[in-house]
Amino acid sequence: MRNRKEKLSLLSEMIAFAKSDDSIKTVEYNFLLAVAKQLEISRVDFDYLINNPISRINLKSHSQRIVQFHRMVLLMHVDKARTQNELAKLYNYGLRMGLNHNSITKVLYLMEGFPDMMVPADVLIDIFKVQYN
Question: What pLDDT does 1 receive?
Answer without folding.
Answer: 43
